[in-house]
Every structure is written in structure tokens, then in C-alpha cells.
């Protein structure tokens, strides 16, 4: 992979991972349109590691409190809203793990086509806009219960389909559950930690099993670029979210889907 390809893809991953526009779709479409080769498993691993570090660093205080609550729930029998949230985030991860395993066995390449990306981008983009517009409550993350975490987790599982957007689906679920925009975004970011850690573990096992030579220098740079761009994206997304809402992202997704249909048709 050329150095400029690495830079572009790492920055694209970092920016789109936490915005409701689907990072997986953009990592498929950018090489497709530019005629670049597939970036490979090692590169995906590095970029996921970068975005994982970014969200942990940005929310380090909250992550530390949730981790402590989870540990003390088992060691001391602690029961409070932080414990409920910590276990709720883990519960929300289970559907995505199951769905990801099923898709992996069936073959995920069948989903990595422009027609599916266009459809999911438009359909779930519009649903995100509807959920955001109709939500009239301003609940906080600690108001959520087990059923609501499981419901948002099911939406996160659907987001394995390219174009659906993990961030978009979980924010949509949070808004449908009555969370404020800020709270829905924070829950979405927190949910990214366990599922991304699981994805990294899976990618490490596949990489070790492949036994292919690895350009560690390139992967390290990709991880840093993805981390830095993700930190910037998280910061400005949270700052602008209350004023701009979801509509700019909905419009972008619909236009992207229509563009893909215009270029590739319904069978692409």
C-alpha cells in the first residue's frame, strides 16, 4: 500500500467511525472508486485499534468509573446506576457478536456491494432522522434499563451491514428510547468500546492464523492517524450535535445512496 493510500484510509476511518454515516461503507467505497487494492486485515486491525484508543482516551473518566462499577459489582455486590450501565453496555454487545459470527460463516463479501450500501444508507438514514425529530424527552444514559440496552444492541447488530452505520443505529436507538442527543451519542461511543475490542481480538486471531508478513511501521502510523482523526471527530461532533441535530447526516446519507444507485443501479 502506498503511503498516501494509508493516510487517506486511516483518516477516513477515524472521522467516519463515530459519525452516523458508516465507516465500513466509506472504507469499501473509497478504494473502489479510486481503484486501490484491498487494505488487508492488518490495516483494519490497526485502524480499529486507533479508534478504540481514541474513545477510551476521550472518555477516560467515564470509562474508569464504569470499569470500577463493573468490577465492584462482582467483588462487592455493588448495585447502582453505574453498575446497570456497565452491564447494559456488555449486554448490548451480545447481539452484534452473534450476528457477526453468523455473517462471518455465511460470507460477509455478499454484503460489501454498492446496492446494499446505498439501500442501508438511505433507509436507516431516514429512520435516524425520524427518530431524532420525534424524540421529545431528554433522558440521561443512567435512565436506561436492561430492555433498552438490549434493544439498542439489536440495532448495533444490524449495523454490521455496510452502510447502516453502528454510530447511526445506536444513536437512533438512544433517541427512540428518549435520550437527549448528547446522551444518545455518549451511549453510542461507550458501546463502541466492547464491540471494537471484540473485533480487534477476532482480527488478531485471523492475522496470526494467516501467518503473513506484517509491515508494523505502516500499521503503527495508521493507528495513530486513525486515533487522532477520531479524537477530532468525537470532539466536534459532540460540540455541534445539539445545534445541528441529525439532519445534515441524514441528507448526506440519502445523497450518497442516490449517487450509488445512479452509478451502479439497483443490482450493484
TrEMBL record:
Localization: Cell membrane
Which molecular function GO terms apply here?
undecaprenyl-diphosphatase activity
What is the topology of this protein in the membrane according to its UniProt annotation?
Multi-pass membrane protein
Q: Which reaction does it catalyse?
A: di-trans,octa-cis-undecaprenyl diphosphate + H2O = di-trans,octa-cis-undecaprenyl phosphate + phosphate + H(+)
Residues crossing the lipid bilayer are 7-29, 49-71, 83-107, 113-131, 183-204, 216-238, 250-267
What the protein does? Catalyzes the dephosphorylation of undecaprenyl diphosphate (UPP). Confers resistance to bacitracin.
Q: What name does UniProt use for this protein?
A: Undecaprenyl-diphosphatase
Species annotation: Salinisphaera aquimarina
Tell me the organism's taxonomic lineage.
Bacteria, Pseudomonadati, Pseudomonadota, Gammaproteobacteria, Salinisphaerales
